Amino acid sequence: MEDNEKYTDLIFPPHELRCRRGAKGGSEVWAPTRRAWLVLTPEEEVRRRVVRHLMERLAVPATHIVEEYPVRLNGQPQRADIVVVDMEMKPWLVVECKAPEVAINQAVIDQVARYNSVIGARQVVVTNGRIVRAFVKSENGTYAECSFPL
Q1: How far is 30 from 98, CA to CA, in rounded Å?
Q2: Can you give the pTM of this predicted structure?
Q3: Could you read off the pLDDT of 61-101 as tens digits, one per residue?
Q4: Domains annotated on the chain, with CATH
């Protein structure tokens, strides 16, 4: 099933997704790091490509990638899309994925910064698959834009 063919203009390389028809007729995609079938939405395709990029291109072990990382903000449960942990299992990268049609604007950057105020990673990334913006957090808590290896 090639449901991802409509997104040929994404920065992250396409790869064959393991897909199936869901109970309600929509497409589902296998998420190996979560060991679960998920509804294949445009945002989920971006997430799948980012996870694959982290594993294959940046050599991040699958055991160091946590999807839907729980975050409590003002007492409310939230979830960060992807958190990469280091060898000591401490977060060092937070990635917020959006659908390709969603603009990567200040509101999205603020969202990942709020998550990171709880998570405490050194780097954050926001992407819609077409645009990638990466930031490194300084000792004083400010963020500076940096590059993200593609």
Answers
A1: 19
A2: 0.86
A3: 999 999 999 999 989 999 999 999 999 999 999 999 999 99
A4: 3-146 (3.90.1570.30)
